[in-house]
Design brief:
Strand order of the largest sheet: 2-1-3-4-5
CATH superfamily: Response regulator
Distance between the termini: 29 Å
Largest sheet: 5 strands, parallel
Helix content: 40-55%
CATH class: Alpha Beta
Number of helices: 5
Mean pLDDT: 86
Length: 131
Amino acid sequence: MTSVLIVDDAIFMRKLIRDALEPIGFAICGEAGDGDQAIELYRQLKPDITTLDIVMPRADGLAALAGIREINPTAKVIMVTAVDQREAMLRAMHLGVSDFIVKPFDADRIVAAVEKALSGVVIRDQAGTRP
Protein backbone atom coordinates (compact mmCIF):
# COMPACT_ATOMS: atom_id res chain seq x y z
CA MET A 1 0.00 0.00 0.00
CA THR A 2 1.33 3.45 -0.94
CA SER A 3 2.09 5.64 2.09
CA VAL A 4 1.41 9.38 2.05
CA LEU A 5 2.63 12.11 4.40
CA ILE A 6 0.32 15.14 4.36
CA VAL A 7 1.83 18.50 5.33
CA ASP A 8 -0.35 21.60 5.67
CA ASP A 9 -0.84 24.07 8.50
CA ALA A 10 -4.64 23.96 7.98
CA ILE A 11 -6.24 20.90 9.57
CA PHE A 12 -9.20 21.04 7.18
CA MET A 13 -6.84 20.88 4.16
CA ARG A 14 -5.13 17.82 5.60
CA LYS A 15 -8.56 16.27 6.04
CA LEU A 16 -9.53 17.05 2.43
CA ILE A 17 -6.42 15.32 1.15
CA ARG A 18 -6.91 12.37 3.51
CA ASP A 19 -10.56 12.03 2.47
CA ALA A 20 -9.56 12.01 -1.21
CA LEU A 21 -6.84 9.37 -0.87
CA GLU A 22 -7.86 6.89 1.84
CA PRO A 23 -11.04 5.62 0.16
CA ILE A 24 -9.08 4.53 -2.91
CA GLY A 25 -6.43 2.63 -0.99
CA PHE A 26 -3.66 5.07 -0.06
CA ALA A 27 -2.36 4.86 3.51
CA ILE A 28 -1.91 8.18 5.29
CA CYS A 29 1.15 7.45 7.40
CA GLY A 30 1.36 10.87 9.04
CA GLU A 31 0.37 14.52 9.08
CA ALA A 32 2.38 17.64 9.90
CA GLY A 33 1.44 21.29 10.39
CA ASP A 34 4.77 22.93 9.56
CA GLY A 35 7.97 22.32 7.67
CA ASP A 36 10.04 21.33 10.69
CA GLN A 37 7.53 18.62 11.60
CA ALA A 38 7.44 17.54 7.95
CA ILE A 39 11.19 16.93 7.83
CA GLU A 40 11.16 14.99 11.09
CA LEU A 41 8.17 12.85 10.08
CA TYR A 42 9.67 12.22 6.65
CA ARG A 43 12.86 11.00 8.33
CA GLN A 44 10.89 8.70 10.64
CA LEU A 45 8.18 7.42 8.29
CA LYS A 46 9.88 7.41 4.87
CA PRO A 47 6.59 7.85 2.96
CA ASP A 48 6.18 6.98 -0.70
CA ILE A 49 4.62 10.40 -1.43
CA THR A 50 4.54 13.71 0.45
CA THR A 51 2.05 16.52 -0.14
CA LEU A 52 3.61 19.77 0.98
CA ASP A 53 1.97 23.16 1.47
CA ILE A 54 4.20 26.08 0.50
CA VAL A 55 3.07 28.70 3.04
CA MET A 56 3.38 27.42 6.62
CA PRO A 57 4.69 28.66 9.96
CA ARG A 58 8.16 27.92 11.36
CA ALA A 59 9.63 26.41 8.19
CA ASP A 60 7.79 26.88 4.90
CA GLY A 61 7.28 24.25 2.23
CA LEU A 62 10.43 25.14 0.33
CA ALA A 63 12.58 24.72 3.44
CA ALA A 64 10.85 21.42 4.12
CA LEU A 65 11.37 20.33 0.51
CA ALA A 66 15.08 21.08 0.78
CA GLY A 67 15.27 19.14 4.05
CA ILE A 68 13.41 16.18 2.57
CA ARG A 69 15.73 16.22 -0.46
CA GLU A 70 18.72 16.02 1.90
CA ILE A 71 17.22 12.86 3.39
CA ASN A 72 16.12 11.40 0.04
CA PRO A 73 17.13 13.12 -3.20
CA THR A 74 14.50 11.13 -5.12
CA ALA A 75 11.57 11.77 -2.75
CA LYS A 76 8.22 12.13 -4.49
CA VAL A 77 6.76 15.49 -3.41
CA ILE A 78 3.63 17.31 -4.52
CA MET A 79 3.58 21.03 -3.71
CA VAL A 80 0.28 22.61 -2.65
CA THR A 81 -0.39 26.35 -2.66
CA ALA A 82 -3.36 28.66 -2.18
CA VAL A 83 -1.84 31.69 -3.85
CA ASP A 84 0.21 32.56 -6.89
CA GLN A 85 3.67 31.74 -5.62
CA ARG A 86 5.57 31.94 -8.92
CA GLU A 87 9.02 32.33 -7.35
CA ALA A 88 8.39 29.54 -4.86
CA MET A 89 7.08 27.31 -7.62
CA LEU A 90 10.22 27.93 -9.70
CA ARG A 91 12.42 27.01 -6.73
CA ALA A 92 10.36 23.86 -6.15
CA MET A 93 10.68 22.96 -9.84
CA HIS A 94 14.45 23.30 -9.53
CA LEU A 95 14.28 20.71 -6.74
CA GLY A 96 12.28 18.36 -9.00
CA VAL A 97 8.77 18.24 -7.54
CA SER A 98 6.30 15.80 -9.03
CA ASP A 99 3.41 18.24 -9.37
CA PHE A 100 1.73 21.41 -8.11
CA ILE A 101 -1.80 21.65 -6.79
CA VAL A 102 -3.49 25.03 -6.40
CA LYS A 103 -6.10 25.40 -3.65
CA PRO A 104 -8.98 24.98 -3.80
CA PHE A 105 -8.81 21.62 -5.52
CA ASP A 106 -11.14 18.67 -5.88
CA ALA A 107 -10.48 15.05 -4.96
CA ASP A 108 -9.80 14.07 -8.56
CA ARG A 109 -6.96 16.61 -8.81
CA ILE A 110 -5.16 15.30 -5.72
CA VAL A 111 -5.57 11.70 -6.89
CA ALA A 112 -4.19 12.60 -10.34
CA ALA A 113 -1.18 14.34 -8.75
CA VAL A 114 -0.41 11.33 -6.55
CA GLU A 115 -0.73 8.94 -9.49
CA LYS A 116 1.58 11.18 -11.54
CA ALA A 117 4.14 11.20 -8.73
CA LEU A 118 3.99 7.41 -8.49
CA SER A 119 4.67 7.17 -12.21
CA GLY A 120 8.03 8.86 -11.62
CA VAL A 121 7.28 12.06 -13.54
CA VAL A 122 8.95 15.18 -12.16
CA ILE A 123 8.61 18.81 -13.14
CA ARG A 124 12.01 20.02 -14.26
CA ASP A 125 13.56 23.46 -14.10
CA GLN A 126 13.94 25.63 -17.19
CA ALA A 127 17.24 24.02 -18.12
CA GLY A 128 15.55 20.62 -18.15
CA THR A 129 17.78 19.29 -15.41
CA ARG A 130 17.15 17.98 -11.99
CA PRO A 131 19.68 18.58 -9.23
